[in-house]
Design brief:
Elements: H1 2-24, E1 31-32, H2 34-44, H3 46-66, E2 72-86, H4 89-92, E3 94-112, H5 116-182, H6 188-223, E4 229-230, H7 243-253, H8 255-276, E5 281-293, E6 298-310, H9 318-384, H10 390-424, H11 430-433, H12 442-449, H13 458-472
Parallel strand pairs: 1-4
Antiparallel strand pairs: 2-3, 3-5, 5-6
Helix pairs in contact: 1-5, 1-9, 2-5, 3-5, 3-12, 5-6, 5-8, 5-10, 7-9, 8-9, 9-10, 12-13
Length: 473
């Protein structure tokens, strides 16, 4: 019993030392949890900023289409100087010159195009809705990357602590082997085995420290700052009660599916527009001009109004080709929608199964650690009594380390699987997680720009201020 008590005392001291050293590896000024990591990723992500800008590009597509049914006003200023020379020789030659200037204002207005432009506007609006859903999907990717980075730092941190604890225990075993060798209880082979295990443990600890540094660098890349004290696994989000429920949620909520549904509608409207392009169009035009001839002080004023009805009768097959191409794009988008539905259903099933498997694996790993700990304690006690060899102790220690490492990995896998399931269902968003961030509202810019305001209008100036604020942020 005395030997067993000493062993437990050594292990307790080693565990305390390992925890203290692991804490020293990370900054103590700030504690981080998973919510902090996701908030940092959301507020600092360049990928999100990129896709928000792309969404504003799609918003401008609506404005550009709306402007197609508005008058286009342009002005022109022309100045010309004429120089004429007539006759032969110096005596009979005559020259004259004049300077003229004119200014004109013209207006062109598409009054009717068989509804093609309105369909193009509706298609642009569907493209905006599709792009919004793409932004939500990117948001999910950014937040899941934060979850991965957080869990990886925490796991590598714990592995470093395990490796250090393993090294301390093996060093203690090496000292014990040397002491027993001195009194003739073991051979030189036992000492050499212990030395080999200590050397391997040092190498493994070095590798673990390198992996931790890599994990911290990845965290800083994803979150935008170095991690603080990371010490607790994230709480697992609520999950669907069954596989069918998980798949149903995914089909209702996943942004990829919603985006593709809007893409199909946009392709259908574009195909309808190409058919309308074959019809007639009616344009109104007006021109006002004023011209002056400086040499004669003559001036002229002109004002023209006109209506033109036009229709392309034959364009070498270009209109029919455009129509067929738009129908082919519609078929392609419908095929992509079917593939997306199947992919989302499959991903939800895979994520749900992975979580169930990880949960069962964690239970088994915990039981394995308990059994390995009991076996190690017993074998080490038996070794002090001479009924076990040094090799037996080393093997038991390795089994305990493997079991503890497997438990850490199973816990990390379960946490990642839980959030992967949330992502597969389209629920890994700042809104659904209720993150304390200033969420990007796509309606603000869209509502300002959808009426296609000009720079000189009040709405145009308000829009310019909104855009400057967005670019500054």
């Amino acid at each position: 019993m005395r030997g067993f008590f000493n062993i437990r005392r050594v292990r307790a001291l080693v565990s305390v030392s390992a925890v203290a050293t692991a804490a020293a590896l990370v900054p103590q000024a700030r504690a981080d949890n998973l919510t902090d990591a996701m908030i940092g990723a959301y507020t600092s992500s360049g990928l999100l900023e990129q896709n928000r800008a792309l969404l504003r590009v799609a918003d401008e597509g609506v404005a550009a289409s709306v402007s197609g049914l508005r008058p286009v006003i342009s002005t022109a200023l022309n100045i010309a100087r004429d120089y004429n020379r007539t006759g032969l020789g110096a005596a009979g030659a005559r020259s004259s010159h004049s300077t003229g200037a004119s200014v004109s204002v013209s207006l062109n207005w598409l009054l009717f195009d068989n509804g093609a432009t309105r369909l193009d506007t509706a298609a642009a609006q569907e493209t905006v809705l599709a792009t919004r859903q793409t932004l939500v999907d990117v948001e999910q990717q950014v937040l899941f990357a934060a979850v991965q980075a957080y869990v990886n730092v925490l796991t590598q941190q714990d592995i470093v602590a395990l490796r250090r604890n393993n090294l301390r225990l093996l060093q203690e075993e090496l000292r014990a082997a040397n002491d027993r060798f001195e009194v003739g209880e073991v051979t030189r082979t036992d000492v050499a085995l212990a030395e080999s295990q200590v050397a391997e443990a040092r190498a493994n600890l070095t590798d673990a420290r390198g992996a931790l540094l890599t994990a911290r660098a990845t965290y800083e890349e994803v979150v935008g700052r170095a991690p603080g004290t990371v010490s607790t696994y994230p709480p697992l989000p609520r999950r669907a009660n069954s596989l069918d429920a998980a798949q149903a949620l995914a089909l209702r909520n996943h942004p990829s599916l919603r985006s593709q549904q809007h893409a199909v509608k946009a392709a259908q409207l574009t195909a309808d527009s190409s058919l309308r392009d074959m019809g007639p169009s009616l344009n109104f035009s007006a021109t006002a001009s004023h011209g002056e001839l400086h040499s004669t002080d003559n001036s002229s004023d002109n004002f023209d109004l006109g209506l033109s009805l036009s229709q392309t009768i034959y364009a070498g097959g270009a209109l029919a080709s455009a129509r067929r191409a738009d129908l082919a794009r519609l078929d392609a988008e419908r095929g992509a929608l079917l593939s997306t539905q199947r992919s989302i259903t499959s991903n939800a099933a895979s994520a749900y199964t992975s979580f169930e498997t990880a949960a069962a694996s964690l239970v088994s790993s915990t039981e394995r650690v308990r059994a390995a700990q009991v076996a190690f304690d017993g074998i080490r006690e038996e070794a002090t009594l001479g009924s076990r060899t040094t090799l037996d102790v080393l093997q038991a220690e390795q089994e305990l380390l493997d079991a503890q490492t497997a438990r850490l990995q199973a816990r990390a896998t379960q946490a990642l699987a839980a959030y992967d399931l949330l992502q597969a269902q389209g629920l890994l968003t700042a809104e659904n997680l209720n993150l304390a961030v200033e969420r990007y509202d796509p309606e603000i810019y869209h509502n300002q720009v959808r009426s296609a305001p000009a720079f000189v209008t009040k709405r145009g100036q308000d829009l310019d201020r909104v855009l400057k604020a967005l670019r500054k942020n």
